[in-house]
Amino acid sequence: MHYGFIKVAAASPSLRVADCKYNCNGIIKTIKKAYDRNVQLLVFPELNITGYTCDDLFSHKLLIDQALTGLLDIVKASESKEMLIVTGLPVKAEGYLYNCAAVVYNGNILGIVPKTHLPSYNEYYEMRIFRSAPKENSVIDINGTSVPFGTRLIFRNMLMNDFSLAIEIGEDLFAPVNPGSLHAMNGAAVIANPSANNELLDKAGYRRTLIEAQSRKSICAYIFSNASDRESTTDMVFSGHKMIAENGTVLSEALPFTGEYIETEIDLERLSHDRKSRLPVAEQHDSGYKIIPFTMKPVECRISRTIKKHPFIPEDNDTMEKRCDLILNIQATGLKKRMEHTNCKTAVIGISGGMDSTLALLVTHRAFKDMGRSPSDIVCISMPCFGTTKRTKDNASKLSRILNTDFRVINITASVKRHLADIGHDGVTTDAAYENAQARERTQVLMDISNMTNGMVIGTGSLSEQAIGWSTYNGDHMSMYNVNTSVPKTLVRHIIRYIADRSESKLKAVLYDILDTPISPELIPGVNGEIIQKTESIVGPYELHDFFLYYFLRWGFTPKKILMLATYAFKDNYSADEIKKWLKIFLRRFFLHQFKRSCSPNGPKIGSVALSPRGDWRMPSDASSEGWMKNLD
Predict the structure, then answer these.
(1) Where are the alpha helices (H) located in 429-468, listed in sequence order?
(2) Residue 379 burial by Cβ neighbours in a 10 Å radius (0-12, 13-18, 19+)
(3) Integer Cα distance of 71 and 84 in angstroms
(4) CA distance 492 to 312
(5) What whole-number distance in Å separates Cα of residue 387 and Cα of residue 125?
(6) Does the pLDDT of residue 281 top 50, yes or no?
(7) Which domains does the chain have, with CATH numbers?
(8) The pTM is what?
C-alpha cells in the first residue's frame, strides 16, 4: 500500500545560458532518472529551459521559439510516464511575455502558470522583460492545443484526491500576500516553487525560514527548486539551493553549492488530517480557481524520510532543554493558579519512588518556589504495602527530605488486609481486587489528609498511562489536579534527567537512581527485595505506546499505517510481530479504558497530543475497537 505517501523531487541540472537544446537534454535525462526512482512529482527551477539570466536575450523571438520547442521535447519525453513535471520557461501570450511554469504529465501540458510578483529591485529587473500574471485564468494555444493559463490553477489527481498541486514562482514566495497561501486556502496540499534566487550571505537561512513558515501556516508540502550554479555569474551567483518541506519541517535539502537533485516522500494523509480536522477555518472557496484533473495511480514507495522513534522527544539537545524548561513552566504555572484560586494551604502527593510521582513533586516544588511559599507545605506521603521495595521506599524518602518537604510514612498494609478480609478476599490471591485495594487505599489516605490540611491532592499519572488505562479507577486515576496529565512517559524521563543534570550532587544521585528503577506499580510482592511486576513486560514498551499514541491521536492514521511506520522506525529494536502484538494491546486498551478518561481530573495541556475529555478527545466510553483491530489482519 502507498499509505498516502508520494515521492517528490527537486532538480537543478547543469545548464548553458540561452542553450535550450542542451538544457532540455539535461532536463529529459533527469526526468528518466526520477521516473526510474518512482518519483511522482519533479520540480525544476525558474526559466530552466532557457536559463534565468538571459536578460535582454528574452526579447529575441528565436530564444522564445527555442524554449517552446524544448518544452515540446519534454512533453514528448513524458509520454507513458505517470509523473508530474514542473519546468520553467518564457511564454508569449496575448501579446506579452510571461515568466511561466509549465505542468507536464504523460505527454500533455496540463497548464501554464505565469509569475505574479516580478522583482525589480537591486540586482533584479524582471519588469523590464516580463509582464505580471493576469488576474483571471484564460486559455492559450500551445502548438495547436488549448492549454489553461493562469495563476489560479489546481492540478488534482482524481485517483488520489489529497494529491492537489499548485504553483507559485520565485519571488511569489517572498511577497507579503503570496499566491501559495491562496492556493492552499483553496485546496492545494502541495505547492511547487520553481525559483531563481541568487546566493548572498545568510540568504539560505532566510529562504529556509520562509519555506518552513509557509508550509506550516498553509499546512502543505512545499517543493522549492532553485536555479543552478551554472547560471551566468555576470552580477549574481546562484547555488542550486533546494528544499522539500512538509507542514513546517524540511524533509530534504540540498544546501547551496552541494547537489543537483534531492528527493523524499511527502505524506498526503498527514497533511489532509490537519487540513480537514484541525484547521478547517483556513479553507475558503474562490470561484476563480480552476481544477485541472489528471489520473495517476498511487505508487508504493520505499520510505527514505526519517521516522523518529520518539516523536515527543526533540533530537537536538538545545531544543530538548528549552522544551523541558517550557513544560515545567506550564505545569508549575497551572498548579500555581489552581492553588491560589482554591486558597489551599498544602499540596498532598503520594510519593512512590517512581518517575511519575517524582516529576509531580519536582513540578510542585517549582510552583511553591514561584509562589514564594515554603516547601514544608508540600506533604509527601509514602504508603508502603505488599509490593513496595526498599529501593523505591528509600528513594521516596531521600527525594522528599532533600526538597525539605513535610515527609510522612503511612504503612497501609494492615488497612488493606482488613479491607480484603472484610470483602471476603483471602489476602493471598494476587488478582485485580488485591492490587486495586492498595491503589484505592492510597487515594483515600491522600484525600483525607488533604481534608485535614486544607490541601490539594496532586495527580501523578502520565499521558501514556491514560492512553492505555494503566491506572486504578478511583484509585491513582483520581486526584484534584494532575500536573502530568499531558506528559507522555518517554518525555517524563527526559524532564527528570534535565532537572537532575542541573541539581546538586545529592538530588542528582537520587533522581538518577529513580530513572534507573524499573517502571512498576509495585502491587505484587517482590522476590528477594527485587521488583517482579514490571509494567512494560505486561502492557508493552512505553516507547512503542507513545509512538502509537502520537500517530493514532495526532494524525488519525490507520493501525496498518502505524504498524508500517513503527516497523520502519524500530527495525533495529523489535520484530514486526512484536510491534503488531503491542499495537493490538494498545488499541484494545485505548478503547476499553475511555471511561476512565471521560472523568479525568483537570491538568495543564503541554502539547498537541492530549486526552482531556473537555478540550481534546471526546470519545464514547462504549465505542468498539473491532474495526481498528481488523485493519491489522
Answers:
(1) 432-452, 463-468
(2) buried
(3) 14
(4) 10
(5) 78
(6) no
(7) 5-294 (3.60.110.10), 317-535 (3.40.50.620)
(8) 0.92
